[in-house]
Amino acid sequence: MIRIDKAGKRPDILSLSGTNKGKDKLRLATVELLKEYKENKTAYDSGTKLFKFKKSFTAIKR
């Protein structure tokens, strides 16, 4: 087993403007994805519809 040492809570990625100002962007994106999934569960489960992820939320740097 590989031990993973997490340095603590992840930093908040806050919205800087608009109606979501001051709210965590990642949490808002998660809520939106869950909402989309609940509305089209069979399409996502069958693979006919895919989630659109925001690339700015990934930790991969290219």
Summarize the structure.
The chain has 62 residues and is mainly α. The chain has 2 helices and no strands. It has helices spanning 25-39, 41-46.
Overview of the structural elements:
- The protein is mainly α.
- The protein has helices at 25-39, 41-46.
- It has two helices and no strands.
Stretches where pLDDT falls below 50 for ≥5 residues? none
Tell me the structural class.
Answer: mainly alpha
Helical segment count: 2
Number of strands: 0
Portion of residues in beta strands equals: under 5%
Task: Characterize the largest beta sheet: strand count, sense, and whether it forms a barrel.
Answer: none
Mean pLDDT: 82
Helix content: 25-40%
Which sequence of SSEs, written as H and E, runs from N to C? HH
Rg is 15 Å
Task: Tell the overall outline.
Answer: flat
Question: Between the first and last Cα atoms, what is the distance in angstroms?
Answer: 28 Å
Topology, pairings included?
Blueprint: H1 25-39, H2 41-46
Top keywords for this entry?
mainly alpha, flat, single chain
